[in-house]
Amino acid sequence: MDVRLFVEFDRENRRLVCRGEWNLHNFNVIRKQLHKISWPTTGELWVDGRQLVNMDSSGAWLIDKHIKKLHEKNITIHFENFPEETAKLIGIIEKRIVPSNEIPQLKKLNWLGQIGRQNISQIIDFWEYLGFIGLLFIEFIRGIFVPKHWRFQSLVNVVDNTGYRALPIIGLLSFMIGVVIAYQMGNQLRNYGAGVFIVNLLGLSVLREFGPLLTAIMVAGRTGSSYTAELGIMKINQEIDALNTMGVTPAELLLIPRIIGLVIALPLLTMWADVFGILGGMLMTENMLGISFYDFIQRFQHEIPVRSLLIGLGKAPVFALIIASIGCFQGMQVKSNAESLGRLTTRSVVLAIFFIIVADALFSIIFSRLNL
Amino acid sequence: MKKEENIIEVKDVSIKLGNEWVHKDLSLSIKKGEIIAIVGGSGSGKTTLLREILMLQPPDSGSIRVFNEEVTTANYQTLLSVQKRLGVLFQQNALFSSLTLLENTSFPLKEHTHLDSKTIKELAALKILLSGLPVNAISKYPSELSGGMQKRAALSRAIVLDPELLFLDEPTAGLDPVSAGGLDELIVNLQSTMGLTVVIVTHDLDTLWTVTDRVAFLGEGKVLCVDKMSELIKNPHPLIQKFFKGSRGRTAESIYH
Description:
The structure holds 2 protein chains of 2 kinds. Chain A is of the alpha/beta class. Chain A is built from 12 helices and 4 strands; from the N terminus they run ββαβαβαααααααααα. At the A-B interface, α2 and α3 of A face α4 and α6 of B.
């Protein structure tokens, strides 16, 4: 006898003998064997479970499904010799079979609907963002006259986390950018024998553009994402709700210190980045074009107006506002699932970098109009 | 076949978390087909013991055998074969928040069986209904379900592979009495029809009295006593007396005893 034979149908006596282990492991084999049986079309049928080793719920489901089909053909079924628990299990499962076409499905939109929904949700997002900014502004005004509500502790923490701890990475990055710019420009200038102009080019490009922009992008990746993740987890843990019930608004304790902290920290970081960018460029210039540090600095102070530094530093608070407000807003949008946290963290960084570059382009246009 | 009778065999297990010995030479054996509860005061290491048996937290020393396999030193293959035979209901449900209920429950089936997707869906739906949820909950996300429904959903995922061994960590915590009672009934029902061995970590006195065959009391890093509930409360150990002879414990005792 085949050990793998789980069912045997005796047409003469109208007996279906179940044997062996009817479990998930043997599920496919049992089903195939059941399919092969040529079922009677009328009359009665006996199902015998004496030789059954065990039967789990998938086995019971399988037998119930077939019996249901037979019932529809008006065949009467008698169960015999089933262990008590198995018979109970079969009875329980019989009542709970859902055909796959009755399983409720998630509604999926077609492509047009998806585009529409995407657009609507973007618009709603933008509205909510405006609302969020308004709320922050009101909270800020409310808190500014009540010194008790100034959160110095949180503010210092934020500056420490986003500013002080970012110093090494920002310094190193700017230094290398300085080296790279000096190398590329130096190569071109040397061809025209105008090597000394490297100081002008390097100074202006680092102070006006590369310093603020690269720092802001680094901070968007570093701080914007952490704002979203922190606030998102607090949202999921209901910490935000808890604050609200204690009469402390999350804006006052969590959001405004983060935003003001970054507005303080980012210009400082930008200054730091400027210094290291110039240092990197200076080192490369000395190496490549043979312009000594002394000559470099001499020329630097004559050629580079303070205005360039101030313009660069002036952009930083605007970038900080963009990064912090988007980071906080996305954090507060997190719904209670892991996926939304990941999606919104990504979104916070991408949007922040996007708007930083948009803002930078606007600055360029404005400055060119003003001849700055 | 004598060896097969103990489905879990924990022997001389010690573990240190931080600076404290949570378990010190703890031993416990669990018989096939019984419903056993693990109780003890807060911080007595109930959940830690569960995590050790599930190999989420390897003990510092000692041996743990599940299905007669030593799991503390098991390789990936052995561990997988053990894991396929057990189901776990975590304290916080641990449903995958980005999947619907049906996707959650069919996940183990998709990973560990070779069934076609239609069968997987129907089997998963069956388990969801078996755990007492309505049909329209099937396509919902976990966050759209109430606490009690989430518990049932997590249970349906735990039993979807028809495990021989089911771990329930605080199954009735945070549920209203009706839901908790329903869940208790469900556990007994599943146990009797599917022949499960159930290990429950709980504080719920009603569950202890109505559901369990035996209760293991954890304290001082050891199992202080394993016995039937009615015998356990007679144990003179001060921790056990304190646990069961408070006003809640006495009320429950007077009802069920």
